[in-house]
Amino acid sequence: MSSEVRFITKNFGKYDPMSIDSYLSIGGFSALKRAVTMDGEDIASLVGRAKVKGRGGAAYDMGRKWSQARAVKGDHKLQICNADEGEPCTFKDREIIKNDPFNLIEGMIIGGYTVKAQDGYLYMREEYRHLRPLLQNAIRQAEERGFLGDNILGVEGFNYHIHLYSGAGAYVCGEGTALIRSSEGKAGRPRMKPPFIKVSGAFALPTCVNNVESFAIVPHLLLDDAGFYMSYGGGESVGTKLVSVGGNVRNPGVFEIPFGTTVREIIYGLAQGIPSGHALRLIQFGGASGKITDGRILDVPYTYDDLKKAGVTVGSGAILVIDARTSVLDFLRMNQAFFSHESCGQCTPCREGNLHQKLLLEKLARGEATSEDVAMMKKIGKIMSLSSLCGLGETAQSALLSAMEVFPDTFAVGGAK
Predict the structure, then answer these.
(1) With bands split at pLDDT 50, 70 and 90, how would you rate the model's confidence at 277?
(2) CA 290/CA 256 separation, integer angstroms
(3) What is the DSSP letter of 398?
(4) Are 20-222 and 328-411 the same fold in CATH?
(5) DSSP structure string for 308-343
(6) Where are the domains of the chain?
(7) How would you classify the pairing of strands 161-166 and 78-83?
(8) pLDDT exceeds cutoff 80 at 180
(9) How far apart are alpha carbons 137 and 153 in whole angstroms?
């Protein structure tokens, strides 16, 4: 069975997260000191060569994003760290904040230097309010030691400040434009694009948004002269990945795995399998907005390409395991209730689609659904995925539509399994 590796998480447990001196004692801010001797484009290229893809769910090439953000003209540019992490069964970013806050701050500062941003906004989900003092302390101590502020490390004109924001607990604020509106003090609702965030984001300024895990990788990459990170995985899935495993497993938690580890090794090795000998019912990848599948995926390597071929995606890195004690239909009803509650209501496909899907699933559970109802569920799901304003509406039906392919008996009129 696979074992964990330590690259992104190598600082966990090695220093006091409330003390910058403790962080400095293990080499903290050495990556930043190296970064300011480099050209920002070279840093973006390094991230690109390591094939780091955004770890928030979209999996966009991070080196390319930084290079594009760097090229945008603007006297004042911003960077945002998305620590909203509202996707159910996703809690990897929480572990980074809790165990290695100074590394996250260092990654943001390097990112600011790379894309030529003057301000960074760290946007936290409301449910992580207990971690605010930890980050406030890290920001304050970094400022006191000259790692944040004006002319950082004596580099003339390298000015970067970090501002900590908390949301109000809305799932939709994990979407970039909704997060930006929330940061501006407005209702957290998505907006149309273009203009794109990199050109006109927060406060109508050029903005680059990255996930907590994405920032956390960067300091380690800059100091990885031995190529430890790139020795793992292959193809478009190089290095390591944090995964959050939850549900019906004996050992739920966050694990850092090499890309290429099989799903079986993650669930039955690191997470120690399903308790009490219950059979596996389904696995959902990437949170509530992710697709579901069954045990046929167990021997598939955990890579972007292999999971995509198997009909699912990496997404946020969540792996939710459901055993036979829960029916597919009950799981879908729970999933749909979540989206019906979290839809911001701004666009018709999402607002009305989620409501009607919820009603149709309840009708199916009562044994009253017709074949026309099942066909309507599929139709609504496809319309939502094609015409919703943001990613919430586009992916809210991923679990339902994939279940129709993998578990067709669930939708047999006259009884659900």
Answers:
(1) confident
(2) 20
(3) H
(4) no
(5) HHTT---TTSEEEEEETTS-HHHHHHHHHHHHHHH-
(6) 20-222, 232-323, 328-411
(7) unpaired
(8) yes
(9) 20
Amino acid identity for residue 34 in this structure: R
328-411 in CATH: which number?
1.20.1440.230
Cα-based distances in Å from 301 to 26, 92, 305, 306, 349: 34, 20, 9, 6, 35
Identify the burial level of 32 via C-beta atoms within 10 angstroms of its C-beta, where 0-12 means exposed, 13-18 middle and 19 or more buried: buried
d(CA 271, CA 263): 11
Euclidean distance between CA atoms 326 and 150, whole angstroms: 56
Question: What's the rounded mean pLDDT across residues 206-214?
Answer: 97
Which residues have a Cβ under 8 Å from the Cβ of 139 and sit 6 or more positions away?
105, 148, 162, 164
- Helical H runs in 54-91? 62-71
Q: For 158-178, give the DSSP string.
A: --BEEEEEE--S-GGGGSHHH
pLDDT at site 294: 97
**Homologous superfamily assigned to 20-222:** NADH-ubiquinone oxidoreductase 51kDa subunit (3.40.50.11540)
Separation CA 290–CA 415 (nearest Å): 25
User: CB-based contacts of 368: which residues, under 8 Å, 6+ apart?
Assistant: none
| Alpha helix stretches (DSSP H) within 37-187 | 40-49, 62-71, 92-99, 101-115, 132-144, 176-183
CATH topology of domain 232-323: Ubiquitin-like (UB roll) (3.10.20)
What pLDDT score was predicted for residue 414? 57
For the stretch 97-118, pLDDT in tens is 999 999 999 999 999 999 999 9
pTM: 0.94
The b/e string for 276-308 (b: 16+ C-beta within 10 A; e otherwise) is: eeeebbbbbbbbbbbbbbeeebbebbbbbebbe
**pLDDT band at residue 299 under the 50/70/90 scheme:** very high
What would the pLDDT profile of 254-265 be if each residue is shown by its tens digit? 999 999 999 999
Reduce the DSSP state of residue 123 to 3 states and report it. strand
Instruction: Return the DSSP state at 290.
Output: S
Output the CA torsion 55→59→64→70 (10° steps).
-50
Longest dimension (CA), the chain: 73
Spatial CB neighbours of 352, under 8 Å, sequence gap ≥ 6: none
* Residue range 379-406, pLDDT digits in tens: 999 999 999 999 999 999 999 999 999 9
**CA distances (Å), 213 to each of 177, 217, 229, 245, in order?**
20, 6, 14, 16
User: From CA 114, how far away is CA 103, in angstroms rounded?
Assistant: 16
